[in-house]
Amino acid sequence: MSAKGGHHVSDTDSDITVGPEDSDVTTESPHKSPVKLPSLSKRRSEVHEISESEEESEEYFILKGTSKGKGKSSLFNSLKSTSEQNESKSLVKQSNKSSETLTKLKSQEKTTKSSSECFSKSLDNRTKPSSETLTKSIEKRSKPSSETLTKSIDKKTKLSPETLTKSHDKRTKPSSESVTKSSEKKTKSFTEIENWLDKIDSSPEAEKVDIKKRFHSPVEKGKHSDYKPSPSSGLKRKQTVLLEEEKKTVSRKKPPCQYGSKCYRKNPSHLQEFSHSDDNQQTSGSSRTTQESPPRKKPKISITGPRSPDQVYSEGQPYSFFLTKVHGIQNQYNQVLAMDIKDILSPIMGTLQASCQFNYMFEIPWLMKQYPEQFRSKPLLLVHGFTAGNKTALEIEATKYSNIKFCQARLEMIYGTHHTKMMMLLYEEGMRVVIHTSNLVERDWYQKTQGMWISPLFPKLKKEENKSNFSRGDSPTNFKKDLLDYIGSYKAYQLKDWQQNIADHDMSSAKVVIIGSSPGRHMAENKHKFGHMRLRKVLNTHGPPKDFVKSWPVIGQYSSIGSLGATKDAWLATEFLQSLATVEGSSCVPLASINLKLIFPTKDNVRCSLEGYPAGASIPYSINVAKKQTYLTSYFHHWISKGRGRSRAMPHIKSYCRPSPSSQEVAWFLVTSANLSKAAWGALEKKGSQLMIRSYELGVLFLPKFFGSKKTIPVSSDINDTDKLLLPYDLPLKPYQKEDRPWIWDIAYKELPDCNGNMWCPS
Fold first, then answer.
1. What structural domains and CATH numbers belong to the chain?
2. At 138, is the pLDDT very low, low, confident or very high (cuts 50, 70, 90)?
3. Neighbour count for residue 650 (Cβ, 10 Å)
4. Strand, coil or helix: 657
5. Which of 16, 217, 487, 501 has the most CB atoms around its CB within 10 Å?
6. Residues 372 and 378: beta-carbon distance below 8 Å
């Protein structure tokens, strides 16, 4: 049903219309472009231009890693203060210095006449920070732009190396004879330093200096409030020389890494601390060699910039489970294992030839805009469950698009719906299947939490004589066979071409198990083909060992609740829980020992959500049903998704799992379109001889054995744990408190407005 004209249409087991629709717009923050810095040779003259305030303050010595008044640091203080006296007041002060200062200068000048090798040694002794300190100092250093640096250098010093002495003489011409003598002596000292720096510049090591790796003074972090560095001040030449000397000192003392050249670590501090040459294949005192290097871990996903859909898809392997992007949350949460419908249909994912969309609700004009322009004329089949007026309205919407055709799913059971959400995408390169939880309407892809599984790109099978493609190219999970069985249950001629497309492709790379529901009364062998009995059969064959999960709870998370019976033993805590608690080789498990936990939003969860009260239009739970099953409240837990940034994005996703008591792993995980209802999962009849299902549903089950693990799948909700299966909600769960009430969608809420200032007054 279309959701036009400001009306919400619920995604539930019955067709209900409620409330106005809400919308919002978000913007992305611009990214800064990288800054180019001047080369080392252009910063040559800065050796004479250290500001007076920086020179004479204690912070300067902290920046240099030396202490004030020790050794040759005093000489540098004297040399720097003389070269930076640009004002007459400072020159007068210099002329009034005592004879004791002149005596010290003479003694210090004798020291400066030593060779460059001695000077280099003194630098080594003065600055030997650890590699860790050096790395932090480099990372924290500010990076002014090249234009700012050039202007700052030109403004401060317009001196060439040839005229440096003349310029210095002009700046130091006080009448005092003592000052003149002092300046002449210091000019000689600077000339010696210049000669030494020329040797450094001409050496091969000078080319290795990276001007971008800079110091960052602790003053800029507020440790010294009286020091205010200019934002345009550049890297001092002497600091660069000191940095180069420190690098040489550190590199000479690098111990070999125990993993040698095969080390998998990429941390800069590790690379600076240890050498990784091929010669050092074994660390002294350790028997582990490079052949025994630890397994390479999956790198953490960078969240500094946007990535293409194929990159996001690649980062989501091997589980290939994603959430939809949400408008109104921090951008970092949309950059990790999250995709939009445009990402799924992007040309990067494949060159589309035809597509088939299974769903409950459609907005055809919006849907067509999600396809890339070059694919909008490709054949599109829409599989729906509408009848009468709703069917007519849908067909009228599609009259503008000659490439759209329809397949009406038969719904012989009253109150049944076509609730399956699946895309089948046929490419030039192969075929892809997407099983998800979103209606094909704009609001479902805007500010809700939705989930999806995206298959690998299935290649086309090569033709072989006397062999049917229907029996070839299946996976260990029987994905191909089960998908064909599910589509075959529609008994629709419009789907024959797609059944052939499935048969013609190699789906052996699929690692999930299909769990579907199809309307009807299923008996004998067909009883275990669909619904919760299908889940029971799969867990009986591939589920966890009984003793291993004896104390593990079962979690159900959904967006709608049907009529489950007057007591918990009518269906929920008996036949349904029996299927969820099934273990390998047995479905006869003492149910009293199984802790069932259900996640359902509270009234305040909805009120404080991104959409406000209108979000509740997609979370249908009626007051009449709630009054008949008050026992459910004791099972309820809050919707909390801080790890994925979606606590305020109300869930339309449906998922079920069996986590460990530590919340670090699961025995299995299921994402599906099936809500908590008999219509979706089915109910046993005639003493358990048949299973009655009203609706079409589809989901995929993740089992450890098909992902290379023996018993469990590691899980988390932290976006930094991308090597694990990321759940849509946080563990452990938070149970309802006495004051908490589940969201009821057909009663008024006028006590408190929602986050948008609205009340909830359903008609």
1. 309-497 (3.30.870.10), 522-726 (3.30.870.10)
2. very low
3. 25
4. strand
5. 487
6. no
The two tokens of residue 751 are: 């006590």
| 534 Cβ contact list (under 8 Å, min separation 6) | 515, 516, 517, 528
Residue 597 assigned to a binding site: no
The neighbouring-strand residues paired with 554 are 596
Single out the residue of 11, 5, 8, 7 nearest to residue 385, CA to CA.
11
Q: Which residues pair with 655 in a beta bridge?
A: 557, 671
What Å distances lie between residue 1 and 53, 212, 614, 751, CA to CA? 73, 59, 18, 32
DSSP-derived 3-state class of residue 637: strand
Cα–Cα dist 662/345, whole Å: 38
581 C-beta neighbours (distance < 10 Å), count: 24
Torsion-angle region of residue 7: left (phi > 0), alpha (psi -120 to 50) or beta? beta
Annotated catalytic sites, by residue? 419, 652
DSSP state for residue 696 in the 8-state scheme: B
Dihedral (C-alpha) 406, 407, 411, 412: value to the nearest 10 degrees?
120
Task: State which amino acid sits at residue 335.
Answer: Q
Closest by alpha carbon to 31, among 304, 327, 331, 307? 304
| Partners of 556 in the β-ladder | 598, 656
Q: Find the helix or strand (DSSP H, E) in which 522 lies.
A: strand 520-523
List, in order, residues 6 or more apart from 305 with CB less than 8 Å away. Answer: 31
**In three state form, how does the secondary structure of 422-450 look?**
EEEEEECCCEEEEEECCCECHHHHCCCEC
How far is the C-alpha of 495 from the C-alpha of 490, rounded, in Å?
8
Dist CA 597 CA 657 (whole Å): 10
Q: What is the mean pLDDT of the chain?
A: 75
- Residue 400 contacts residue 323 (beta carbons within 8 Å): no
The reply, when asked if residue 188 is annotated as ligand binding, is: no
Name the least confident of 13-27, 397-411, 435-449, 505-519. Answer: 13-27
Residue 667's contacts (CB-CB under 8 Å, 6 or more residues apart) are 543, 544, 548, 549, 552, 657, 658, 659, 660, 704, 711, 712, 713
Query: Using one digit for the tens of pLDDT, what is the confidence trace for 374-384?
Result: 999 999 999 99
Q: Supply the pLDDT for residue 649.
A: 98
The pTM (predicted TM-score) of the whole model is: 0.64
Q: Check pLDDT > 60 for residue 583.
A: yes
**Cα dihedral 725/730/735/739 (nearest 10):** -150
